[in-house]
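Hey, I'm writing a tutorial for new members on how sequence and structure tokens pair up, and I'd like a real worked example in the thread rather than a made-up one. If someone can provide the structure for the chain below, I'll link this post from the tutorial.
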Amino acid sequence: MKKVLALLLSLAMVLSLAGCGSKEPATKAQEAGGEGAAASESGWTPSQPITIMNYVKAGGGMDIATRKFVEIAAKYTDATFVVDNTPGAGGMTAMEYVLSQPADGFTIFAGTVSNVAYLVANEEDLEKYIWGFQWIDDIMADPYSVMVPAGSDIRTLEDLLAKCRAEGTVWCGPSTGGAKHLAALQLWGALGIENATWVPFESGPDALLAVIGGQGIATVGNPGDVEGKDLKNLVIATNEKLEKYPDVANFADCGYPELDELNMWRGFAVKKGTPAEMTEWFQKLVDQVTADEEWQKFFADSSIVVFNKTTEEFEAIIKDNIADYIDILKSLELIDASYEG
């Protein structure tokens, strides 16, 4: 009897030890310090798929950024992301959808500075369409560039300014009141160009073709727009020279360092009232993605600067955009003098 009891006790100890030692294999995300770490620090864990709503069609700049984000994020989290596209009304269609959803963090808006420009130019309610959101992560800056035909005798910014100051010039670009038009107006004001005309085209690519064809002297776009086209970057608005265009001047080189802050930002927002634990979780994930070598190389190849500027800094940038756009559009009488947002 004692031998049987001893045998049973030994067997129980073996089973107990086996149970203590058993463990589910770690996921790739957990091994990389991903979702498990983020959830334990913020107290929030995604319990259902997270939809990221793009306001652009598939293949647009923000769509490419969002889909690459989801791809890289899979290294650090086991959360499921769904990328959707709802274009229309300068982003307002997608914004309306996100604002109609619960403020629970499971629907994210993927926006750009173009949304701000559209809303101001159309005198929309900024309290709803901007400040109805918490802007949680500014993830990149696509610098603005002044571009001219590759075969042009304009070789420096000073060459361009001399022509613009001596005679009326035409610049081709996308829609009036759009982000690139407003960037051009900011440049003209700072550079003392008073007699230029912005001729709008249906799309950015159409405007580039017009410049190549000699219908305008220059345009404002992004550095990568010259790839595969008979165009050249004359000056790029960036504080640090781009790896792909090391010999192209920035505005600091030309004596206008303040203009190197002009860029097309892209980032993420959630409906105001979303739990702080969720935004902290997501911001940590963005930190991990931003530091990822694959993410950095992908956008360096596209001449885009990546980072993670969170709510306080991001919303300060948006406030500056709004103030600048209202001032410019009022001065040109493109919006009502009483409009304040």
